[in-house]
Amino acid sequence: MNKILSFIANKDKLLLLQGSPNDPQYKKSLWYVVTGGYEEFDYTLENTVIREVKEETNLIVNEMIYLNWIFKYNSLGKECTEYAYISFVNNTFVKLNEESIGYRWCTIDEFIETIDWIGDKKILKEVIKKALKKEKFWRIEKVEKL
Which of 5, 57, 83, 96 is the most buried (most CB within 10 A)? Predict the structure, then answer.
């Protein structure tokens, strides 16, 4: 199953979503970013990013960058390939859907400290620092198996 993950930025702030404690995979509330599955009607992963950001936050993506970062993992019995993006928005008013119970706009340090992240947070911080400048940390696609 192809999926997307998108960090959301407004100027120098990053959005964190607080997931529901009823999350089907983790069974607890976590701080995370927008994720979602590719649907055939999306046609592209970029369209998936736009749709998922709108569905989960009601924000409109003005610009996005694919970060050359792919995560492969198993979720609820399905093999997933998740492509990482950063999405830039102009608005900070978030309207959550049923998947989340809260949100926070954070500095990069607050974001790194708070996010529930399986991988290396030092690498995550470097990737995001570059992404906020609209640059890519990975020159070629980096695939991580989680």
Answer: 57
DSSP letters, 50-85, are: HHHHHHHH-PPPSEEEEEEEEEEEEETTEEEEEEEE
Please give the structure tokens belonging to residue 91: 């608005």
Cα–Cα distance for residue pair 50/111, rounded to 1 Å: 22
Q: Can you spell out the DSSP letters for 78-143? A: EEEEEEEEEEE-S-------TTEEEEEEE-HHHHHHHS--SS-HHHHHHHHHHHHTT--S-SS-EE
Cβ atoms within 10 Å of 140's Cβ, excluding its own = 6
Contacts (Cβ under 8 Å, ≥6 apart) of 98: 20
Give yes or no for a contact between 114 and 104, defined as CB atoms under 8 angstroms apart.
yes
Task: For the chain, give the mean pLDDT.
Answer: 95
Q: What's the 3-state SS for 8-31?
A: EEECCEEEEEEECCCCCCCCCCCE
Confidence of residue 29 (pLDDT cuts 50, 70, 90): confident
d(CA 137, CA 23): 31
Evaluate if residue 20 carries a pLDDT over 90.
no
